[in-house]
Amino acid sequence: MLHSINSIIERIGSGLGTFNYNTKNPVHNWYKFTAGFSNKFVDEIISKENPSNKKDFNVFEPFAGCGTTLVSCQTLGVKSFGNESQRFLIDIIKAKLDWDIDINKLFNYLIFIKEFVETNKKDFDLNIVVNPLLISLYKYSNLKTLYLIKESLENIKQEKYKLFFKLALSQSLHKLSIFPISSPYISRNKRNIVSQSTWDVFSSIVTAMYLDTTGLPKYQKSSKVYYHDSRKKNIYINDNYCDICITSPPYLNNLDYGEVSKVHTHFFNYTNNWNDITKYVRKKLVTGATTHYKNSDFVIGDYEKSEFSENNKDISQYLLKIAQQIRIDRDIKKGKKSFDLLTLYYFQDMYYVLKEIRRIVKKLNGKAFLILGDSAPYGISVPTTEIIGKISRNVGFSKYKKYEIRKRGLKWRNHKYRHHKVLSENILVLE
Questions:
Q1: Phi, psi for 401 (deg, rounded to 5)
Q2: d(CA 3, CA 48)
Q3: Strands (E), 298-394
Q4: C-alpha dihedral (360, 100, 77, 84), degrees to nearest 10
Q5: I need a surface site. Which of 89, 121, 252, 296 has the fewest CB within 10 A?
Q6: What is the pTM of this model?
Q7: How many other CB atoms sit within 10 Å of the CB of residue 70?
Q8: Residue 10 pLDDT more than 60?
Q9: How many helices (H) and strands (E) does the chain have?
């Protein structure tokens, strides 16, 4: 195992835990996901774990995200099952998994969409439907066309074509924004030069996506995604069903996954404001940011009596000590973020995810491969990978092994408001 994992790291390189490789790969590049990981990693693990291409080989992905694991599995003809708790990303994944697109139908739908836009442009009142955030990000004429394209999709009855165009439209939102929104948050200190028309951008993305499908293997649906929170049991996936799990959980780094996609969720009417994001998105996600909870809701007595604390007594006490150190350093540095509570909530949530992974992965020779990053909130080291490895032992895995991919945090070492800790990104293998 040691040799094989290290050789994978050596072949793929330090970008294993990033989305960089995926931007050059068909279907994977249809949706840019900042917190994604390399599809090459999935390919390598499946090649290693299923060398004889068994037909009954199954893969579980508890954090489906933008579908990296599921798309890679389907491309290889491997069955996979994923949970994703963001409804917008469910549609993205479904579009990426249904690449059996007929050029004639696609072309006819494209003509219909264009005619719909032209016919309704004059009488369409953008001010009635537009979200205030979006007004600040787009030229009025571009935003009007984007909304009309979205309205036209309601007339398309075949779901796979509707989702295909919806995904292309989501990428048009990136291309046409006045400010960059490809990073986790909107970069208002920079500006994009938007020269193409909305229709040219949209139609060129649709064309590029279709051309991607022409080089793919013969279509065979082998991956499935569920709208589900992996902290809870998914009754549609049986116990002891999957051979392996491949995933990259949220890092303990205060990245708000509910906030990351807000331009898309506002545009497609999943959310309308900050409260909607909290109610409909954040509450269904593993706690990875301080925006996920209210400090006043935390009761230490309840935490110490929780299932997590009862089944992980030593770890729970260790985390409480770390949380205290974080709180002391935060007060010294006059910080405002409650990373102490974030740390406690994060590992408690990951305990429930690990329980679900353990339930689904086969007891005989089952394995889980997790890409994780360590953390240092307010400069206090939190060995995330090691802690999750120890928790895995308490939910039924027999052993774990950590392999370092790369060092993290180096670019912030000279930043006066950041800690100087060198962190690591790792592959954690559970058996």
A1: -145, 135
A2: 12
A3: 367-373
A4: -20
A5: 296
A6: 0.94
A7: 28
A8: yes
A9: 18, 7
